Sequence to fold (571 residues):
Amino acid sequence: MKSLQKHQLERVGKSLTGFCIAVVILVVGSLVVMVAQRGLSAFAVDGVDLWGFLSGVTWNPHQPDASGAPTVGALPMIFGSFAVTLLSCLFVIPFALGSAIYTVEVNPKFGNTVFRPALELLVGIPSVVFGLVGLTIVVPWIRGWSGGTGYGILAGSLVLAVMVLPTVTSLIIDALNAVPAAYRMSSSALGGTRWQNTWHIVLKAATPGILTAIILGMARAFGEALAVQMVIGNAATIPDSLVSPAATLTSVLTTSMGNEAMGTVYNDVLWSLALILLLMSLVFILIVHIIGNRSEVKHG
Amino acid sequence: MMQITERDTRGAAVEAEMREPVLATHDVGVRYDETKVALSGVNLEFAAGEVTSLIGPSGCGKSTFLRCLNLMNREIPHCHIDGEIVYDGHNINTPDENLYELRQSIGMVFQIPNPFRKSIRDNITFAPRCHGIKDKKRLDEIVETSLVKAALWDEVKDKLDKSAYALSGGQRQRLCIARTLAMNPKVVLMDEPCSALDPIATFSIEDTIGQIAGEGISVIIVTHNIEQAARISDKTAYFLLGEVVEWGDTDAVFSDPKDKRTQDYLTGRFG
Ligand SMILES: Nc1ncnc2c1ncn2[C@@H]1O[C@H](COP(=O)(O)OP(=O)(O)OP(=O)(O)O)[C@@H](O)[C@H]1O
Ligand SMILES: [Mg+2]
Fold:
């Protein structure tokens, strides 16, 4: 009797968890299908040229070009997205790495009681707040020395950098903490200085984790919409400098999506932009997995 | 009987060097957190080419003592070392002792084999590089000689650039020994180096220890395996509750212990 109950319980558990999985898969799957379907219909139904879309530099969906096709060159936005992502990464890496090393290797007491909690607090701040701060501090500051409007890729990257810094730093701290204490012990027993130990042993061992942290930070920066849109200037052209207005895939989406009726060409190409975002995040996740697998294969 | 004869022959070869201790402690004590006395009044001497076993029940301060000898205890916060530790004619237990140079001469092998997440070659070249050797040819030489001394060369010579984690537990431990030998140390400290290994790997490490000692290195090994102590060591020190109760030639300590407490421990009547 009792064993029967246990057996049933097992079945109930299995079907409950199975059901949850099924729902999640269904939601994610239909999301991907929907974005793909809508995003591709610009090319399949509306006759937009895929190559022209990816390489064109003029974004003016309401204005058909000479041949009557809509002018939807998305390169400025693609460029803008990659530019803010890479540039913000460049700002983030030294500070994240440096403060993570300080926290784990130099002064864990301060790091764990003051710095870490402060970081965790920052992680929770909504992106619109970062946007606001960017708008009131970063943009006027850039305007002050550049002479332009102050909006642009530089402002966007700075805001994104501050935004992803806590996440990336936290993840790097985790990666460094995961390096066995025994490594540090044996490298100092071999007469290495703290710097040699950190550089050659700890960072080397933590490299996959550090790369993962950076890639996840990039993914977050690439996908961030609101904060970027507030400071980038929203001009869908390839800017001639880091301090002139530009646009990203996300900023165009947030500024235009609400205004266009479903099924119009304009609406369809916005979905195409969304599809690019989706594909990119797929790429980021893939890279993270490849990094994980490679280090596993190499060191077991 | 056979083993003892072997050991004596080897001992004779390095007899000349055996007179002067390379390393000696005078009244060494250790306190953790200022109040917790883990070790007190330890006076021991270690000669070149000699294997010394440190035995005793758990928690009696063997590891603590071993970590004094290369000042690893300095890496532990709130750990205070008293007394004199004389290496190469001078007291190293001073604030201005150069730890980096000291640890070149006094190497250490840990309980759990813990190669770095690097290739076999890089595991060995790490220490020499840290100490300023850059020449590629010289480094290659060091890799080979250290691996030969650690009896690992034949097994890994074709895969030096593979990850150290591709090795078995026993091989990893011998790699850790090789990594230490790469600095050409005068003393090698080992804290229960075989306790994570199977009997066969253990025997091969014991062989390696014999060879290292044959090179004139003073080996100091902590072990819970009393037979191992009897097999491999020239001298044995018995630790109990933070003190050395008995210290002498292994044969003498095992066949005719002076102290009743040593006798009890060796015959398993401890506790
Ligand atoms: N980092 C530390 N902080 C505080 N106390 C410590 C520390 N390390 C060791 N001790 C204490 O010092 C005493 C001696 O410990 P030690 O590790 O030297 O013993 P051991 O003889 O090596 O034991 P085992 O055979 O179990 O390895 C123990 O009472 C232990 O609790
Ligand atoms: Mg111990």
About this structure: Confidence is low (pLDDT under 50) at residues 1-7 of chain B. The longest strand of chain B covers residues 21-32. The longest helix of chain B spans residues 199-214.
